[in-house]
Amino acid sequence: MSLKLELLTPELSLLIFALLVILLDLGIKQKKVLAGVSILGLLVSGGFVLTLWGRESASAFNGMFLVDPFALFFKLLFLIAAGLVILASQDYVSKFARFQGEYYALILISAIGMMLLATTGELISIYIALELSSISLYILTGFLKDPKSSEAGLKYLLLGAVASATLLYGMALVFGLTGKTRLTEIAQAIQTIPLTTLLDSPALLLGIILLACGFGFKIACVPFQMWVPDVYEGAPTPITAYLSVASKAAGFAVIARFFYTTFGVPDWLSLNWGILFASLSAITMTLGNVIAIAQTNIKRMLGYSSIAQAGYLMVGLAAVGVASMADTLGRSGLLFFLASYTLTNLGAFIAIIAISNKIDSDLIDDYTGMGSRAPLLALGLTLCLISLIGLPPTAGLIAKIYIFNAGVHYGLLWLVVIGVINSCISAYYYLGVVKVMWLGAPVSEEKVPSSWALRIVLALTCLGVLVLGIIPGKFVQIAETAVRIFTS
Amino acid sequence: MSVSLEHYLILSALLFCIGLYGALSRRNTIVILMSIEIMLNAVNVALVAFSRYIVPLVLTGQVFALFVMVVAAAEVAVGLAIIIALYRSRETVDVEQADLMKG
Question: Is A91 near chain B, with CB under 8 Å?
Answer without folding.
Answer: no
